[in-house]
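Saturday, quiet lab. Running sequence design on the structure tokens for the scaffold JK sent over.
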């Protein structure tokens, strides 16, 4: 009898072990599937954020028009959307052909500029050794990394269409999506959710306002400076500098590269002057223009911003770096509203209720 009972217990132990193995294997497989889903869906989340920024821009401009005119909200919203497209169309009509011609010339001359830069770098022993390290297989690895960096979920054009349509839908019916998010929250926390969403809207509007003004100022200052120095294609370079200023830290460096290469066509001294001009403009933007405009916006630590850009670039490439700043602002706002403020209020309540 004891022998049969021992066999039965051993058999049950074996079944238990097999079940544990299957549970562990299933858990690992489920975790891997979730990671893959998050990895794929993360790019979709970034497109949702980009579409939300478009809607925030239109609504922020409509709010400003309402404050200036005291007109009805619907009329101001219509002026915001149509006015933006009309102004963009007029700018493209008057300056588009010139910018396109200069960009085309710049793209055609770019290989020649790179060859000239390579010759000047190779004239120094250290530069020659550095370029040799990037030849052959190393250069192929760099090319593959760059191609992967600029790869997106649906292609660049497809992503732009999706972002544009999301922005239009979010602009037309913002309350529909806001109420949908609030309804996902338990009833006792719905008012807090509304307050947090309003705070996020305020922060993003302030950030966008500062970025738009800073981009225009950077473009104007760059155009004036390059024209004074005598750099060709100054308008195209100024437009590139203004647009890339949307990406803090890395954008100005990317915009400076073609301008410095064009300066090398004349001389090394001109290239140094061009680099100094870009550094001076970027210093003014970082220390005077942006802080003055975005006084009410959440303060983003520079080191944390760089870490966020590197992480987002590794996860989602160029789109991640472009949206790293608003995502970081959203994250810090959520942490501040949902964690820091409640803790501070609880501590103040404890202090006030503490008996003397």
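Result came back. Writing it out in full:
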């Amino acid at each position: 009898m004891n022998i049969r009972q021992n066999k039965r217990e051993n058999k049950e132990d074996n079944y238990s072990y097999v079940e544990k193995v299957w549970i562990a294997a299933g858990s690992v497989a489920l975790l891997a599937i979730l990671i893959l889903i998050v990895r794929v869906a993360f790019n979709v989340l970034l497109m949702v954020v980009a579409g939300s920024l478009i809607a925030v821009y239109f609504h922020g401009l409509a709010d400003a028009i309402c404050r200036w005119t005291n007109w009805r909200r619907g009329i101001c919203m219509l002026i915001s959307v149509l006015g933006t497209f009309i102004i963009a169309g007029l700018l493209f009509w008057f300056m588009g052909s010139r910018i396109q011609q200069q960009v085309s010339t710049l793209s055609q001359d770019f290989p020649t500029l790179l060859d000239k830069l390579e010759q000047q770098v190779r004239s120094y022993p250290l530069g020659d050794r550095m370029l040799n390290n990037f030849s052959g297989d190393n250069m192929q690895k760099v090319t593959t990394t760059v191609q992967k960096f600029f790869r997106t979920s649906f292609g660049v054009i497809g992503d732009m269409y999706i972002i544009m349509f999301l922005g239009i839908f979010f602009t037309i019916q913002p309350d529909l999506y806001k109420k949908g998010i609030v309804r996902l929250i338990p009833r006792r926390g719905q008012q807090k959710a509304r307050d947090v969403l309003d705070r996020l809207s305020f922060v993003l509007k302030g950030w966008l306002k500062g970025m738009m003004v800073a981009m225009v100022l950077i473009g104007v200052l760059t155009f004036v400076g390059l024209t004074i120095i005598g750099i060709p294609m100054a308008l195209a370079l100024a437009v590139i500098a203004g647009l890339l200023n949307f990406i803090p830290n890395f954008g100005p460096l990317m915009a400076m590269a073609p301008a410095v290469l064009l300066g090398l066509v004349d001389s090394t001294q001109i290239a140094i002057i061009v680099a100094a001009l870009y550094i001076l403009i970027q210093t003014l933007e970082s220390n005077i223009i942006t802080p003055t405009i975005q006084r009410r916006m959440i303060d983003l630590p520079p080191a944390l911003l760089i870490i966020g850009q590197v992480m987002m670039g590794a996860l989602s490439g160029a789109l991640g770096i472009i949206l790293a700043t608003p995502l970081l602002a959203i994250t810090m706002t959520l942490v501040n509203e949902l964690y820091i403020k409640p803790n501070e209020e609880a501590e103040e309540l404890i202090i006030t209720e503490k008996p003397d």
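Notes for JK: The chain has a mean pLDDT of 77. The longest helix spans residues 2-69. Ask whether to fix the surface positions before the next round.
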